[in-house]
Amino acid sequence: MKQLAIFLIYLFLLTSPAFADPKPTLPIDNPQSGEDQYLLAPGDLVEISVWKEESLQKVEALVAPDGNITFPLVGTVMAAGKPISALESSIVSKLADYIAEPVVTVKLLQNNGNTIFVIGKVNKPGVYPVNRRIDVMQALSLAGGLTVFADTGSTFSGIFGGGGPIHVLRRVGNVVKVFPFDYDDVVEGKHLEQNIILEPGDTVTVP
Fold it and tell me: CA-CA distance, 134 to 42, in Å (whole number)?
């Protein structure tokens, strides 16, 4: 009888909520959709529709070189650097002065703005439009990888202490910024901060 009582107490402790496997108390966020991961850039073409507004259906807008788009009633809206959802919110906030509770849908028609360039000793140098943000290694992969004649950076890394001969060139206004990239280091899992996310218009050079 004593053994039975001990067994029942033990069974109660195992099934009690206090001893059960912990459950998350906060919802787990879903990863962002591919559309929200893409940031609009000059040259992109979007289609904007406002629900129940016949004159505001499927209006095409090109992201201008200054990053803005124009839309009826709204005027100029900054689009570059924003995901689709953020642009929708910006248009909604401006339309609210004219339309009660506007519902706005933005669709990306062409992503001509998010273009990168890979030149030099890669197997497929050229211009690459991409539909999401990519890093240097992914850009090199798009270009078919390095040729056998490419300088991957190990020699220069040993002499100068990092920063191989591959570079990312980025124009910011009238200034060109240069980001060194040591391929050998990154492949070996070292100095991964060199594997930066590319911006539209970046050029990866492989000597």
Answer: 17
Low-confidence stretches of the chain (pLDDT beneath 70):
1-37, 153-164
pLDDT of residue 164: 56
- C-beta neighbour count of 206 within 10 angstroms: 24
Closest among 190, 160, 192, 166 to 180, alpha carbons compared: 166
Asked if 105 and 88 touch (Cβ cutoff 8 Å), the reply is yes
* Alpha carbons 107 and 54: distance in angstroms, whole number: 17
Residues in the chain: 207
CA distances from 66 to 69, 83, 84 (A): 9, 17, 17
Q: Let me know: does 49 contact 56? Beta carbons within 8 Å.
A: yes
Per DSSP, helices labelled H in the chain are 2-15, 34-37, 84-95, 136-142, 154-160, 183-187
- pLDDT of 37: 67
Angle at 153 between CA 124 and CA 180, to 5 degrees: 80
Reported as a single tens digit per residue, the pLDDT across 83-136 is: 999 999 999 999 999 999 999 999 999 888 889 999 999 999 999 988 788 999
Spatial strand order of the sheet with 115-120 comes to: 126-129, 115-120, 203-206, 166-172, 175-181
